[in-house]
Each structure stands twice: as structure tokens, then as C-alpha cells.
Amino acid sequence: MTVLRKLGVNVAGVVILLAVLEVVGRFRLAGPIWPPLSDVVAYSGSDQGRLILGRAVAATVGEALSGLLIGTVAGLVAATFGLLVPWLRAGMSQVAIVLSTVPLIALGPILITTVGSERTPAVIAALGAGFMVFVAMSSAFSRPADNTQDLFRVLGASRLKTLARLTAPASVPAFFDGLALAAPAALLGAVVGEWFGAARGIGVLLVSSMQNYKVEQLWAAALGTSILSLVMYGALAGVRQAAVRRFT
Q: Which residues form the ABC transmembrane type-1 domain (predicted)?
């Protein structure tokens, strides 16, 4: 009964939010730049809307997934090196913090001149995803399960064997925690990266819609990005629950 009540509250919250969006747009309470939600949905379902949004989403998802893969591998490798070579840990953490705090508006032009405008979205996506995975895994590696690490040390296990037999399995839930946060970060990074001159994608569509005052198209792209981000997070959060049951 508690589960049904919680589900009912969540559904009611979503319905109220959608109703507010529709009312604000229908009665122009926020001006002409806030269209009714029904108009946005109608545009998204039209032939033109499906074609334009479909191409943009496909391009952005491809860049986000590329960045997510690269960032995940980089973050995992960096955290592993920090565990195996402790004197590197502090320096790598500082580098990760610096990279995560650099404003994207300043990083974009540098990436365009170094890797090109086509690769910039994937690189920015990788930076965002890599930081999330690095933080999650570094935190997990520093908190092994129970006191079993002392047992491994007493038995003479090397750091590499301890990592393979103890630390890595115990860190699987934390890995998926980081991955669930990295996926939306990669999507956001890809969209922002597309603003700096990419040929296609949701970021390009957002800029084009603003410049040409296509309000329904602008909102459709923005809402589509939000929904896609929630779907990616929800899917990985579900995988994380399965990992918790398996490895804890």
C-alpha cells in the first residue's frame, strides 16, 4: 500500500506540473515565449518536428555516449592509479577539480582550436562524465567493505590482488552511482559543446530556434533533452539497484 501511495503522489506531482505548464502557456501568464505544453507536444508529433528533433537527438546522443564511454574509462583508470600509487592520488584529485571548475565558455574556444568543432561536444561530455566517475570511484576505493582489507594485508596480498579480489567488487554499486550521474553530465556537456560550432545536434537546434524565434521548436528541444536525461539516469539507477543486490 505504501508503494502504491508513493506512486500515486509521484503521478499526481507530474500531472500538476504538466497542468501548470499548460495553463501558464495557454493564458500567456509568462508572455509569448512560454507556449502551451499541448502546442509543444503537437509540434513534436508533427512530421516536421519528428524529423528535425530526431536528427538532433541522434547526433547529440551519439556524442554524449562517446563522451560517456571515454570519460568513464578515464575516470576509472585515474581512480585506479590513485589507489595503486597513493602518492599520485592528491595530485590527480587536484587536476580533476581544476578541470571540473573551468567555465565551459572559456574551455570551448580552446577545444575548437585543438580538437576541432566536430569533436568538441564529445570532449566536453567526457570531461563532465569523467569527473563524476572519478569522484565516485575514488570515494569507493577509500572505503573498503568492513575490515577485510586488514585481513588481505595480513595474508600478504599485493595491492593489485586486493583491488581485484576485494576493492573492485565492493565498489561496483559506487561505480553505477557515478555512472548514473555521469550520463546526464555527458548529455549536458554534448549539448553545450554543440553551441561552439557543431554541424548538428540539440545544442545547434536550440541556438537556431532562439535566433529564428521558433518558440515551439525551442521548447520541444529543451523538454526533449530533459526527458532524455531523466531516462538515462533512471536506466542506470535501475542497473545500480541490481548491482547493490548482487555485490552487497
A: 53-240
The answer to whether residues 85 and 199 belong to one domain is yes
Residue type at 134 in one-letter notation: F
The cell for 147 is 575490515
pTM, whole model, 2 decimals? 0.86
Tell me the C-alpha distance between 81 and 61, whole Å: 30
Residues 208 and 241 in one domain: yes
Question: In terms of Cα–Cα distance, which of 37, 15, 13 is closest to 27?
Answer: 37
Question: CB neighbours (10 Å) of residue 173?
Answer: 20
Residues 105 and 165 in one domain: yes
Does one domain contain both 55 and 81? yes
The total of structural domains in the chain comes to 2
Quote the CA–CA distance of 49 and 66 in Å, as a whole number. 26
Q: Which amino acid is at 164?
A: A
Helices (H) and strands (E) in the chain, counts: 12, 0
Q: What nine digits make up the cell of 161?
A: 590482488
User: What would the grid cell of residue 162 be?
Assistant: 586486493
Q: How far apart are CA 36 and CA 219, in angstroms?
A: 10
Q: Any idea what the CATH number is for the domain that residue 126 is in?
A: 1.10.3720.10
Q: Which residues contact 62 (CB under 8 A, 6 or more apart)?
A: none
Provide the grid cell at 129.
Answer: 562524465
| 88-128 tens-digit pLDDT | 877 888 888 888 888 877 888 888 888 888 899 999 999 99
Q: Domain range spanning residue 29? A: 1-34
